[in-house]
Amino acid sequence: MTLFRRYMLFRNCYSTFSVLAFIFISCSIHAAPALDPNDSDWELQKDEANIQVYFKDVENSDIQAFMGKMEMNASVSSIVKVMQDDDTCVDWVQGCLSARGVNGSTFRDAIQYGVNHLPWPADDRDYVNIVSTRDNTETGEIIISLEAVTGHVPISDNVRLTKMNIRYYLLPLSDNKTEVTWVQHTEPGGNIPDWLVNMLLIDIPFYSLTRLEAVAQKPEYSSAEFIYNEERHIEGFK
Q1: What is the Cα–Cα distance from 62 to 5, expressed in whole angstroms?
Q2: What's this model's pTM, rounded to 2 decimal places?
Q3: What is the C-alpha R_g of the chain?
Q4: Bridge-partner residues for 153, per DSSP?
Q5: Among residues 97, 94, 67, which one has the least CA distance to residue 185?
């Protein structure tokens, strides 16, 4: 029986546990080697509504990584605009309770603090991360990397997420179509069974990518246009 089939059986019996998936949708990562979206070890788990979800094992971890892929009907500039607006986190990132910038930030580099909500009795998760945005002047691809860091925000009653590895690869296919690839591996911390975490991973990229496309299509984001410097690198929005 595939992992996806086992997941569906488990979900039917224990749907109330699905909220635990929230811990994985932070906009942050641990300082670890980036997951390669072209790795042959990725195994397709779900292919529905123009979204493909893959899993793969991660060395020295009982938690699997996921990869979500979708061709969005939205421009790459509109998608990046959504991702760089902290206020939109609650609109597309499943479980996001709040997010805000910490200290100064630029288009290319920022520090972000966020909180992901989990219903009682689980503790909420929070995180501090460095967000790096880089663009390829030849292909137009944009890679957004997120890395967890210590400090900046005092520890609270939340469980601080420290082991996370996330990359967003945004490749423009046309003026209003973008291939989005999202790879992520996160250690949740706290007392949550690894087998339960792996069962719940499939919902995270599927529903979040659907919402991301919807937000990017709103007028305030669909009209976003990049500003380029003399080297043709993106430095902001008009």
Answers
A1: 19
A2: 0.84
A3: 17
A4: none
A5: 67
Mean pLDDT by 10 residues, the chain (238 residues): 48 40 42 78 95 94 93 98 94 91 89 83 84 95 92 90 90 97 86 73 90 98 96 94
Q: In this structure, how many other beta carbons lie within 10 angstroms of the beta carbon of residue 59?
A: 5
* Closest by Cα among 171, 132, 129 to 150: 129
Q: Three-state DSSP class for 16?
A: helix
What's the DSSP call for residue 212? H
Question: Quick one: pLDDT at residue 119?
Answer: 64
3-224 is classed CATH 3.30.530.20 = yes
- DSSP assignment of 145-193 equals EEEE-S-SS---SSEEP-EEEEEEEEEEEETTEEEEEEEEEEE--SS--
A 10 A CB-CB count for 60 gives: 4
**Three-class SS of residue 52?**
strand
Q: Is 55 helix (H, G, I), strand (E, B) or coil?
A: strand
3-state secondary structure of 222: helix
Q: Which two tokens stand for residue 110?
A: 């920022």
The pLDDT value recorded for residue 9 is 45
DSSP β-ladder status, 163-174 and 142-148: antiparallel
DSSP 92: H
Q: Partners of 55 in the beta sheet?
A: 43, 66
